[in-house]
Specification:
Blueprint (H helix, E strand, L loop, with lengths): L5 H6 L1 E9 L5 H11 L5 H13 L15 H6 L6 E7 L2 E7 L7 H8 L4 E7 L6 H12 L4 E7 L8 H17 L4 E6 L23 H7 L13 E2 L2 E3 L11 E5 L4 E3 L3 E5 L3 E10 L2 E3 L1 E3 L3 E6 L10 E4 L6 E11 L5 E2 L3 E6 L2 E15 L4 E4 L3 E2 L4 E13 L11 E5 L6 E7 L25
Parallel strand pairs: 1-3, 1-4, 4-5, 5-6
Antiparallel strand pairs: 2-3, 7-16, 8-9, 9-15, 10-14, 11-12, 11-16, 12-13, 12-15, 17-23, 17-25, 18-22, 19-20, 19-24, 20-21, 20-23, 24-25
Length: 448
């Protein structure tokens, strides 16, 4: 592989992707093979892996150790936490998240795939599509990951048989398509032997598709935030009140999506006040236009009250403001989420008090059935919730924007993250009905 220069990297696109699959399907080995064969591993890292493999009695270096960094992971030969790795080829830069396969680590898979544009779901060719395969496909669909790769691994253990691969690919593709996954690509591989990971396999001449790396390098990256609804969460109000800038008032933050222009008519939410953009400052200079994900300071024509947590959006394309949030959440905390529980809801730069009004259903990912009125969600559960907030929120649906349609539920006592939420409907949406208006939310400390 040729040396990648800084200039080449700046010209390449970035792909975020996650790996998922059942236990012992070979996720970490695939990632290790990908890093090794693409020349993305340093010599000292390879030496450390070789030494660790020798200490475990293995003749060849175990490439899975390139990602399994925790001592418990190395000792047990499993992945426990999400392992992030960064590498690049001359064609593209990558951020990958190697996620665990155990059922009790579903929340880790949600974390790794929440920002991914592509998910690689591994299947052991000997076992085919199993419950955990369906579970991970459902999570990818729930998180609206636009591209899914089915990597049928360990083809060397089934004599590289095309019918085995074809049957698994057909079953998985039908299931994932029924969940609404827009694009599914099936690739037969052997991560241990290196077949179709970086180099084409000499054992599967019946397969004419891309290798895993080739697909990763060429898949269309659809995260062009400039084409999305323009959203600017205010992070900080800048008022120098200095002799040089006695009247300066700017609103700083990172553009979450879309494009903003000087002279554009915008609304400040949740107040709904309308004004125009008088100026945009970026890197100390005034500019006429700014786009996601730039960090800028926006100056408004009118002197209206704007503070941290407010959202600036085009007046003709502003999100709805609501205090009743219906969403799908993945519960990530060890303590359960219960009906009537007081929480904090963090959405972009805004954090408000809230109460869990209802938990209409819990999703069973094995068969996508709904368990009605579970009363609570425990760790790794995915379910529908209805939350009432103390203050209005300018919230998009997750289907419209993964950036401004997501939120966190936080324990107000110690700041622990309880659940990751996706506003609006999803493939798991149910008819929630009207929330109970008599839900106990009158506590004076939580003034709704």
């Amino acid at each position: 592989m040729s040396i990648t220069t800084t200039e080449q990297l700046s010209a390449t696109t970035l792909l975020r992707f996650a790996t998922a699959g059942s236990v012992d399907d070979g996720k970490s080995t695939l990632v290790g093979r990908l890093l090794h064969d693409s020349k993305s591993v340093l010599t000292d890292q390879l030496e450390a892996v070789a030494l660790a493999s020798t200490n475990r009695g293995q003749e060849a270096p175990d490439l899975a150790l390139l990602t399994d960094g925790l001592r418990a992971e190395r000792e047990q030969g499993i992945t426990i936490d999400v392992a992030y790795r960064y590498f690049a080829t001359p064609r593209r830069r990558f951020i990958l998240a190697d996620t665990p396969g155990h059922v009790q680590y579903t929340r880790n898979m949600v974390t790794g795939a929440s920002t991914a544009e592509l998910a690689v779901v591994l299947v052991d060719a000997r076992n085919g599509v199993v419950e955990q395969t369906r579970r991970h496909a459902a999570v990818a669909a729930l998180l609206r990951v636009p591209h899914v790769v089915l990597a049928v691994n360990k083809m060397d253990l089934v004599d590289y048989a095309e019918p085995v691969f074809a049957a698994i690919a057909e079953e998985f593709t039908a299931y994932a398509a029924s969940l609404g996954v827009p694009e599914i690509t099936a690739i037969p591989i052997s991560a241990l032997a290196g077949d179709n990971v970086v180099e084409p396999s000499a054992h599967m001449d019946w397969y004419g598709g891309p290798t895993v790396l080739e697909h990763l390098e060429t898949v269309p990256v659809s995260h062009d935030l400039t084409a999305c609804h323009a959203r600017f969460p205010v992070q900080y109000v800048i008022r120098p009140q200095s002799a040089e800038h006695p009247d300066y008032r700017g609103y700083a933050g990172q553009i979450a999506a879309g494009v903003f222009r000087v002279g554009e008519t915008v609304s400040v939410l949740p107040s709904g006040r309308t004004t125009t953009i008088e100026g945009i400052d970026a890197l100390g200079e005034s500019v006429d236009v700014a786009w996601a994900p730039q960090s800028v300071t926006i100056r408004l024509a009118d002197d209206i009250d704007v503070s941290r947590g407010d959202l600036i959006a085009p007046a003709d394309d502003a999100p709805a403001v609501t205090q009743d949030v219906e969403a799908t959440v993945c519960h990530v905390a060890d303590q359960p989420l219960t009906v009537g529980q007081r929480v904090l809801l963090k959405h972009t730069t805004r954090t408000v008090k809230a109460i869990v009004r209802d938990i209409p259903s819990r999703l069973t990912l094995d068969d996508l059935s709904q368990h009605p009125a579970p009363g609570q969600l425990v760790a790794n559960d995915i379910g529908r919730v209805v939350v009432r907030t103390a203050e209005p929120l300018a919230l998009d649906t997750y289907a419209a924007s993964r950036r401004t349609g997501s939120f966190l539920l936080i324990d107000p006592a110690d700041g622990t993250t309880l659940s990751a939420g996706m506003a609006g409907a999803s493939f798991a949406a149910v008819e929630d009905g009207e929330a109970d208006a008599d839900t106990a939310a009158e506590d004076a400390e939580w003034d709704f």
